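Need the bound structure for fe (ii) ion, inputs here:
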Amino acid sequence: MGKSRTEMTPFGTRIKDEIRRQGWSYILEFQPFDDGGTSLTDLAREFGEPLEVSEDGSLIVETEMLPTASVSEPFNRPERIGWHNDFSTWPERPVLSMASVVSSPERGSSGDWLVVGIDLLLKELLRSAQGRRAVALLERGELPFCFAQGEDIRWFRVLDAEAGANRVRYYGRALRLGAELAGLNDSEVFDACETWEYAAETVGVRCPAETGALLVCNNWRSMHDRLEQSAGRRSRLCFVTGAEDV
Ligand SMILES: [Fe+2]
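Answer from helper R.:
Posting the output first, comments after.
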């Protein structure tokens, strides 16, 4: 067991309220000055236990755009990541993801986030026959996910109605690669992903990734994306376990 939960700050309270309402929270001016990540880990402790992300016990993943970064580090790659929620290929996964921008080279244009709550997304999808077909396929049974070429395929439900209306795990790239490797080339999965993502584009919100900005997502109740980023964009990621009530 780590440090016990601290009393909630005004930022913590606001984030909790917004996540309960829409599945995610965004604060433009969370940490305008670089404090090495202390504010981020302190915030994480208000919600649960920050995940140790390396063997040295670090609680923070530092990201930086590198054209040579591996596909297994999509957060460091220059291109857009694609709609996802984090740890979609992990059986157990941190509920909350927190991302804060340390430096942004072009104000308001480089590496902005897109985010959408699952309630809103499902509402949009259920308005059309095509959307209802996509939802039906994605909740019908387990589908293959593969994070990167050479890794094992893992089968999960995208939409798990039994776990509650808002239990979603999604990563378009991993699902498409998984479908390809599993020989599901009948385009059903690909069509469903396209419809799902089109709906996310339609009702999702763009949040500027300016220096000091923060995005907090409940990985079961929202999806996010990071648009193309250029050199000089750096951010910190912190993941929270044991935050089931948010
Ligand atoms: Fe992410």
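Comments: The first helix runs from residue 10 to 22. The radius of gyration is 18 Å.
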